[in-house]
Predict the structure.
Amino acid sequence: MDYYSEMENKCGRVYVHCWRLCALLAFLLFVTAQVFAADEFTIDPAHSSANFAVKHLMISTVHGRFSDVSGTISYDEKAPSKSSVLAVIKTASVNTDNQTRDKDLRSANFFETDKYPEIRFQSTKVEKIGDQLQVTGNLTMKGVTRQVTLPITLAKAEIKGKIRLGIETSTSLNRFDYNVSFDSTGTTVGKEIKVDINVEAVKNQP
């Protein structure tokens, strides 16, 4: 075998080894990504709601809810800090079981739903503290964005072949912080709004 033929054979063997090494690395990266990838969930609007309570005339409490809640959750059980949440609430879905009051809530006095049809929460950080998760993110309502931190209680179960997450959280918001400033004294409608959010989400099929 002459010099050139021997070099061609050596180059061919090197090429084959390189190709095999690249294929092995690609396979390992793929497997690693599958093992450590976060699960993707879609919020189920039929089983989710954002509930609120506010003082009326400083003597009684009015309860209401937003029934149209949607969004996505990326949840990494082994590395919660890699998780994320995007939740969207349709403001026109507000319901206090009183048509006159609900019409007023949709007006410029409160949520101005024609101009601001959505309330959005986009997480920026997820931490696990004890048995709970703490999710920090940007809450945007009526053109104002502020950072809030939500303590999350999370449950996970497989029901009829589908993996579901159940998420509960509670917080308080000052409506003046979001330009929901009807009644500047806060005597007719209280300034502090108690918020309870219940979300059920279904794991996306691969």
Notes: Residues 1-36 form one domain. The radius of gyration is 26 Å. The longest strand covers residues 144-159.
